[in-house]
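forwarding from the other thread:

> can someone predict this with coenzyme A?

sure thing
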Amino acid sequence: MNIQISPVSRADVDAIAALARIVWQDAYPGIITQAQIDYMLEQRYNTLRLLEELGMPNLWWDKVTVDGKLAAFASTLTTEKRDEMKLDKLYVDPLRQRLGLGGRLIAHVSERALAQGCTTLILAVNKRNEPAIAAYRKNGFVVRDAVRVDIGNDFVMDDFIMAKSLH
Ligand SMILES: CC(C)(COP(=O)(O)OP(=O)(O)OC[C@H]1O[C@@H](n2cnc3c(N)ncnc32)[C@H](O)[C@@H]1OP(=O)(O)O)[C@@H](O)C(=O)NCCC(=O)NCCS
């Protein structure tokens, strides 16, 4: 198995959006409604938004390929706190989960966060997303806070904020 981590390019955006749909349809039914899945996918993975994000200076998109095929992706961004970086997205193809790819991406983005002078990596995860919470705990994150964020159209993100110290 040839596993590579590299930056997402403009040529990848359709494949990223397609993989996001596959992962979300596998992970989120039972946690959020289908209407919220569709709304959030459209909001976060439309072509224009992805292309825009690829051009942003304080936001990084990374992908994992396994034998040349897209298997996982992550995005990270700086926050208003200078010593913190946020892991904004982390998604692994259901066929490739629990093979360590998520852990590798967390290690990869942690290195970058450190290189940018950050000492903490944070993320938001749905309170009912128990497999992901377990994966984050295994990778050194602890729950720091709980938030409810209104994202429009009567949808709410009911999340834990988890943090990992990079020292
Ligand atoms: C959560 C996710 C990113 C983890 O990535 P991954 O590549 O599957 O995780 P890893 O193989 O690096 O797992 C590391 C450890 O996390 C824990 N873990 C991972 N998936 C788990 C699951 N479904 N249930 C319980 N523990 C899990 C395990 O302890 C695992 O180690 P082990 O397999 O040796 O026991 C991935 O499973 C995923 O994309 N899930 C669906 C989408 C999602 O919820 N993303 C997070 C959004 S905030």
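The first strand starts at residue 3 and ends at 7. thats all i got for now
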